[in-house]
Amino acid sequence: MKTVKLLVAVIFLMxxxxxxxxxxxxxxxxxxxxxxxxxxxxxISISQQGKYETIEFKLSEGxxxxxxxxxxxxxxxxxxxxxEVYGTTIAVSDKYPTTLYYLRKKxx
Length: 108
Prior knowledge:
Elements: H1 2-21, E1 26-35, E2 41-48, E3 51-58, H2 69-80, E4 84-93, E5 96-106
Antiparallel strand pairs: 1-2, 1-5, 2-3, 4-5
């Protein structure tokens, strides 16, 4: 009986040890897509650790409520650099919506 308990305890400790080592470490970033006072203009802001960038855009077709082409291009570029989108949300302030994309990338 003691041998079984010892074996179960060893397996339990090994499982915890492997689980603790397997946790990935990530860098995080956000991309926001916000329309301006004109529905065909707006800004895309990229926040990463130690970096902040704002891109202004003007749409040739549709409006910011249904044409996400500018932000998709930015997110696709970041995806090619190893970032993955793990969440999104929409926030409304001053009558204009902001779509937020939450990204993460595994640390080396």
